[in-house]
Amino acid sequence: MPRAEMERRLGSGERYVDIADHFGVERWTVRRRALGFGLEARRSSPQGELPSADGLALVLKHADIPLTEIARAFGVRVKSLKAAARAHGLPTDVEGRAALGGRS
Description:
Radius of gyration: 15 Å
Largest sheet: none
Order of helices and strands: HHHHHHH
Strand content: under 5%
């Protein structure tokens, strides 16, 4: 992964594990690469609050907005956003989110 992309992803609040999951590699691989670039993931925990089930469905139906951006907008981690969606029976995959918006 190029330095610019790593910097963008870490700057947007993605964790090593989120980046690793996206690329199908171990988080240690991502961490080693980031540290090699002189970058490091932020360690502060987001303190936001997730919306209600209806509010979550409303934002998730916009499949063109990445989950990382939605999570950042609410001040939570992607993992928390996905867990809340699962709890409400809402999809987090692109196809399922598009279906929520009526664009299957």
